[in-house]
Amino acid sequence: MAATAAKPSPGLLDAIRRDLGGTGEQAAARLINEAAAAKIEPALRGQLGAAYAGAWVNGPTSELVVATSDSTKVASLAKSGAEVKLFKHSLATLEAAKATLDGLVSSAPKSVPSWYVDVRTNSVVVLAGDVAEAQAFVNGSGVDASLVRVEASQEKPTPLYDVRGGDAYYMGGRCSVGFSVTRGSQGGFATAGHCGTVGTATQGFNRVAQGTFQGSSFPGNDYAWVAVNANWTPTGVVNGYSAGILPVNGSTQQVVGSSICRSGSTTQYRCGTISQHNTSVTYPEGTITGLTRTTVCAEPGDSGGSYISGTQAQGVTSGGSGNCTSGGTTYHQPINEILSVYGLTLVTGGTNPPPTGCTGYTNTYTGSLTSNANAYQPGTAGYSAAAGVHRVCLDAPNGTDYDAYLQKLSGSTWTTVASGTSSGPDEAFTYNGTAGTYRVRVHAYSGSGSYTLGLTRP
Predict the structure, then answer these.
(1) Is the peptide bond before 113 cis (omega within 30 degrees of 0)?
(2) Residues in domain Peptidase S1A alpha-lytic prodomain (predicted)?
(3) Mean model confidence pLDDT for the chain
(4) DSSP code of 220?
(5) What's the whole-model pTM score?
(6) Which one in 25, 88, 123, 382 has a CA-CA gap of 20 to 30 Å to 159?
(7) Are residues 194 and 328 in the same domain?
(8) Which sequence positions are flagged as catalytic?
(9) Do 177 and 317 fall within a single domain?
(10) How many C-beta atoms lie closer than 10 Å to residue 129's C-beta?
(11) CA 173 → CA 117, 195, 224, 381, distances in Å?
């Protein structure tokens, strides 16, 4: 069985060898054969019709196997190059049995974590923490017992969730996640100290058990960190709500006057500028020192949420005055102090989703480039933008290396303020900028062909 496929990256081949075993040559063959199987399987399914009993790939190079419940089909199937299995039951029969179990989900015992159609064994498998309970469930379902195999299992599935800056969490009241952090092997997030004391339990945005406050200081300071349980995975991103999912790439403190944005679960994503660092603020509970003062607005429930400038984490929301209707002043506890005090590491490396045609952007532009050529979108004169976040996406042909550069006009000079310059064809990044005139330079570092550029301007 042979098929053409895009050349896999060395990193992908290394990961397959690491996790699935085999040689590099086998890993490459696996990918080729799997691509071929995905194309061949629908045709074989159509050829077999009601006698189709499933298909799968086997071995370190993923050789295709196809099953049928009709012995007269075996010879013709063999011509496809796939291994052929003759089974008693069709896939449709097994899926009908599973559908019957699905209809009885309300009466399924808690000790049954899962059931599914297993095409390799031509059966419906019911996993069981308690085999007797599972068998009683099957026997009472009306499903033909010959179709079902009860299998003892210790699985205890639980849903998994991401920790993202700006999302809500609950602890009797509501606050917002600042930034994902780790301490050793333990993951968690930084937030405001006034949101909880050591030992306070938290629930996530979905009201699912999430973690526990491990450290908290307020007043004097206004910082804390929460360790999360295994159902939650810290990620290097901030939920920018209308601005999209924003990557966190570091925590370099920005200078006074710089633009800065805040994400929180009440007023979502808001921007302003840094007014002063090292500010002392007196709340009814006491004085807090070392805060940064900003012109970003906030309201109750935003506490603890992320302050970010470009891709650099700045701090967590402490308090302020005013609101997002009349405007106001806010203060944040710098993130670097929180990391230092508790021995935490900021989780970074969050990226925007990879481009898939750059859909979902306000403006879309297309063009074509030859190697080492440039194009400017929406034109050499650029576009006018208010202060806020620019979202840029570039989708170029596979096998090329295209880059994107966001440029701002300063006097008569265009200055690059943000860029996506990976070694692949696609790029995606955001930039939180001041008002001005901008443009995007698209550069074909290597390779030629058509591209799509997605752009959402503030």
Answers:
(1) no
(2) 89-145
(3) 89
(4) B
(5) 0.56
(6) 123
(7) yes
(8) 194, 222, 303
(9) yes
(10) 16
(11) 44, 8, 16, 50
